[in-house]
Design a protein that fits this description.
Blueprint (H helix, E strand, L loop, with lengths): L6 E5 L6 H12 L2 E4 H7 L3 E5 L4 E4 L1 H14 L4 E4 L12 E8 L2 H10 L4 H12 L2 H10 L4 E5 L5 H12 L12 H7 L3 H8 L1
Parallel strand pairs: 1-5, 1-6, 2-5, 6-7
Antiparallel strand pairs: 3-4
Bound molecules: adenosine-5'-diphosphate and magnesium ion (MG).
The site of magnesium ion (MG) has 3 residues, from α1.
């Protein structure tokens, strides 16, 4: 019987470093890297444009089908990256989900540099602080397949090393241990952040 083709998924809030890390990891593992967001744009796999959020709304049905076809076609290791990647890869095709996490202060800097509106910056900080991508990954792919990696204050190379260790099962795969809310509380910034998040 044919073995079901599985992929490594890299997810996280916009700005955490998914595209950078996934591409570097792909070279390291000699894998193909597919950026879901790019694919949606290039192949126009969209249902609508959310003007208010300045984003495209992906057609998840078409996208899921396209991803499945791709998994059948491609040889070798595959890495798929995107902030809603867990919603478009059927669970049986998931090897490991790497959820990148980034300190909200660092994330704010990245998103501001990107030129996001203040509203969009805080929407994404809220998602990071409230672990949205993590819980999405856990509920869709199962806690046993999800590994959280804190990229804050680390070089891309350090992050890659850590992910490789996790994939080789030389480092424990953990999730649910990163607590930005707790950190903000300790530094006395929680109220200020919550007000901004609204
Ligand atoms: P995403 O795809 O999650 O939106 P990007 O890969 O575009 O994020 O990365 C956002 C920014 O963070 C880029 O400027 C990138 O160079 C930087 N970056 C990515 N990973 C790291 C890291 N581990 N340490 C420092 N900066 C990083
Ligand atoms: Mg990206």
């Amino acid at each position: 019987m044919n073995k079901i083709k599985t992929a490594i998924l890299v997810t996280g809030t916009p700005g955490v470093g998914k595209t950078t890390v996934a591409n570097k990891l792909a070279s390291r593992l000699d894998a193909a890297c597919i950026c879901i967001t790019e694919m949606v744009k290039n192949e126009k796999l969209i249902t609508a444009t959310d003007e208010q959020r300045q984003t495209l709304v992906a057609d998840t049905k078409k996208l899921t089908k396209r991803v499945q076809d791709m998994l059948m076609e491609l040889e070798g290791n595959i890495i798929l990256e995107g902030h809603y990647v867990v919603d478009v890869v059927p669970k049986e095709h998931v090897n490991t989900v790497v959820v990148l996490r980034r300190d909200p202060h660092e994330l704010k800097e990245v998103l501001e540099k990107r030129g996001y509106s203040e509203k969009k910056v805080w929407e994404n900080i809220a998602a990071e602080v409230l672990d949205v991508c993590l819980w999405d990954a856990i509920s869709t792919c199962g806690v046993e397949n999800v590994c959280e990696i804190d990229v804050s204050n680390k070089t891309v190379e350090t992050v890659i090393e850590e992910i490789v260790l996790v994939l080789e099962r030389k480092q424990e795969c953990t999730s649910g241990t990163i607590d930005w809310l707790g950190k903000l509380e300790i530094t006395g910034e929680l109220d200020e952040f919550l007000k901004k998040i609204g």
